[in-house]
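Supplementary Methods S3. Input chains for the assembly prediction are listed below.
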Amino acid sequence: DIQMTQSPSSLSASVGDRVTITCQASQDISNYLNWYQQKPGKAPNLLIYDASNLETGVPSRFSGSGSATDFTFTISSLQPEDIATYYCQQYDNLPPYTFGQGTKLEIK
Amino acid sequence: EVQLVESGGNLVLPGGSLRLSCAASGFTFSSYEMTWVRQAPGKGLEWVSYISSSGKTIYYADSVKGRFTVSRDNAKTSLYLQMNSLRAEDTAVYYCASGGRGSWYHWGQGTLVIVSS
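Predicted structure tokens for the full assembly:
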């Protein structure tokens, strides 16, 4: 099975900061990577699919990049409402659809 | 508006069974792949099971294979997860989600399963 290593596990940043989260796959997954946001007590919400495509309605301060094994998720200017846990998820070939361990983002 | 509403979560004894349901509305249910994802208290997301739009293709995580059975009724626009031989480690919030090609665009609010004596 493909393993996803996400880092950091937690992150504290100030409003307006640029925030970056990385996700590394244990093998080449092309661009078959999603990023989800999960706010406390809520279901996950798809932000980015196919590594770099912004889901409809998602603010443009969110972006994703990468291919093969190395991927990056960026918030260009952190807003208070961005406080959440972020997960990467691969969907290369067949299931299992592995998630990363998550990155808990807090405001400094 | 797309809605997914899970139900059936409960407190159950180890070794017991439970059937979760996910009622879908606001979209053409029969055209979408469905999945179950769970989240243990304070932990990350774990993919559990997948079913194709027709119901003919099904996959399970190794952790639930042989114990859980996913099914769907497109006429009733509903998804199900039959969970048998439950263990303490199955304690989690269970989410159903719809989408395709491994991307899950719409999620339910989740239903809590607690396995404990």
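Chain B has a mean pLDDT of 97. Chain B is about 0% helix and 55% strand.
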